[in-house]
Amino acid sequence: MTGEQAQDAAALGERIIALLTARHHTIAVAESLTGGLLVAELIRIPGASAVVSGGVVAYNTELKHTILGVNAEILALHGAVHPDVAAQMAAGVRDHLAVGGQPAHIGISTTGVAGPDPQDGQPVGTVYLGFAMGGEVRTKHLQLSGSREAIRSAVVYESLSELATLLA
Length: 168
What we know:
This protein has about 170 residues and is an alpha/beta fold.
């Protein structure tokens, strides 16, 4: 992330935590290529413990199925970098990180290719975000460029930006 993006991400994280707190909503995060960076950005905010249920880093493709409930046939057919995978990761983490029997209100996921090599036939920079809110699950496709670190940082920023828009 550039310095400006880092400041923007921090401000977005603060806004998201404030909105979730005001609404008494919780969020659960499933990450692949970001490896915990997204949930770390959220829990960096004081008071996040009231709304962040937790996070799962399902870096290995098999874990997307066994831990998050992503359909094995979709993974076998398309690989881990696919909009259906992002959608199922978001829905799965919301349910699997239930607290006191209550699923999180929001599930968010990241899956994609940070590099240095293509994966599952997808070029470096191909990313899918998943958002499960209420009965709706949506995805967002990103095509990013830059170093592995730059792509991962951009995914965190774009995830927060999209989530803030969805919560507005």
